[in-house]
Structures are given as structure tokens and as C-alpha cells.
């Protein structure tokens, strides 16, 4: 068992190093981060402006529909005006016509305002789009330069993955499953080294009886965090 524990510790070191290297793949250098912020901000601004235009267009269609209905209603009332038979009916008809005319005027003003607002927003969107091609070219160039600079890091990650596979190939399947179960549950740390007489991961003191088991090469779990414990042997 002692050899397997040693291999588990070696696997843990590779897994931790691999995780650190893979995180570096997402760390944007400032040269790219600056243009990336500008690019994302421009995209978000254009999206916001387009969404505003879409809302205005939807409102315009709604008002246009209501305006058309009110105009038809106005024609109907005006036609009915010719058929009234007394002063009371005439006054009522004019009241309907006057209210409808006011509503039509309000709707026409709303359409005009929406058109004016939409033209202003469209102007802003066109202005953003005019300079976006240049920004996109700068973004693509900076992104390509960043990705090209990651070649050595990707090579190192590939080498670590091969080393991980080699170590795992020498472990029994139940032990591998146990290791990865703990890794997933314990923030990427499945094996913790003992420093002094405590677990380096959770600082729980390792009882003497467990220390004796470790010295015999037994597989021992920390009583505090349940990680597999590794006791470094003194150099002979």
C-alpha cells in the first residue's frame, strides 16, 4: 500500500499543478484585456441600442394599429353625423367626434415622437457601427497574439496530462475512484501531506495511532477533512 500512497501523492501534485496551469489559460494579459474591455463594451452598447430600437418599433406598430382603428372610428362617427334627427343626437355625435379627434391627434404625436427618438437612437447605433470594424480588427489581432503566446503553456499542460495518465495507469481502479471522489468534494485536494503532526489541508492533528498506521504504509484518511494522508519518509 505504501507505494500506492506515494503514487497518489505524486498524482495529487500533478493534478494541482495542472489545475494551476489551466487557470493561466484564462488569465488575459493587460494588452489584450484593455482592447477586450473596449470590444465587449461596444458590443453591449450596440446591443442595448438595438434592443431600444426593437422596443420602439414594437410600440410604433402598436400605436399605428390603434391610430388606424381610431381613424376608421372617426369616419364612422362623421358618417353617423349626417343621419342624426335631433339636436340631442347631433350634440352626442359631435362629442364622440371631438373625443376621437383628440385621441387621433395624441396618437399621431406619439408616432412622431417615436420616429424622432428612433432616428436619434439609430444615429447613435450607426456611429458605433462605423468604428466597430476597426475595433474588431484590433481585438482579433490582440486575441491572436495572446493565444500564440500560450503555446509553451499548452505544451506544458499536455505533458502534465500525460504524466497524470501514466501515474493513474499504475493505480488500482477502486483507489483511483476514491481519489477523484475526494478531489471533487474537497476543492481539488484528494491527498494532504502531514506537516509536523497535523494535516496540511485542514490543520487537524493526526493522532499517534494514525501516525503509526501511516508509518506502516496503510491508507489513512484525515479525521477532520477525510482526505487521504501522506507522510513523507525521511531520506535514508
Key attributes of the depicted protein:
Helix Hairpins, 236 residues, 2 domains, 7 helices, 3-stranded mixed β-sheet, single chain, mainly alpha, elongated
Topology overview:
Elements: H1 2-24, H2 30-81, H3 87-130, H4 132-149, H5 151-169, H6 173-185, E1 191-195, E2 198-199, H7 208-215, E3 228-230
Parallel strand pairs: 1-3
Antiparallel strand pairs: 1-2
Structural class: mainly alpha
Give the number of helices.
7
Indicate the proportion of strand residues: under 5%
According to CATH, what is the class of the largest domain?
Answer: Mainly Alpha
Average pLDDT number: 93
Strand order within the widest sheet?
Answer: 2-1-3
Count of all domains: 2
Number of strands: 3
Any overview of this molecule?
It is a single chain. The mean pLDDT is 93. The chain has helices spanning 2-24, 30-81, 87-130, 132-149, 151-169, 173-185, 208-215; strands spanning 191-195, 198-199, 228-230. It is mainly alpha-helical and 236 residues long. It is elongated and about 115 Å long. A hairpin with a 2-residue loop joins strand 1 (191-195) and strand 2. Helix content is 75%, strand content 4%. The chain folds into 2 domains: 2-25 and 171-230, no CATH class; 30-149, Helix Hairpins (Orthogonal Bundle), CATH 1.10.287. Strands 2-1-3 form a 3-stranded mixed beta sheet.
Summarize it.
By secondary structure, the chain is mainly α.
